[in-house]
Amino acid sequence: MKVLATILFLLLIFMQIGLWFGSHGVFQLWSLDANIDQERENNRKLMQRNEQLHAEVQELKGGSEALEERARSQLGFIKEGEKFIRVVPKRESAESGNR
User: Fold this and answer.
1) How many Cβ atoms from other residues are within 10 Å of residue 31's Cβ?
2) Which residues have C-beta within 8 Å of that of residue 20, sequence separation ≥ 6?
3) Total domain count, the chain
4) Residue 95 near residue 89, CB atoms below 8 Å
């Protein structure tokens, strides 16, 4: 009877090792759950960014004001008849070298 109990106990230990530390064990499950949560957060951020870009595209397609504003700010376009004045700040190194 002791031999049978020992064999059953060793079998139980072997099965527990597989359950906890095996390739489909509990620790692997916890790791995968953490990865899933991280990927869901990444997906949420990307979906939010996509929505912003989609809204921006719709705004650019629909209105000339948004297109004009983007051309002015990013490309430096000016309207006909406007005057463009560029202010260049003095450089610190040139100012300190002349004194």
Assistant:
1) 11
2) 26, 27
3) 1
4) no
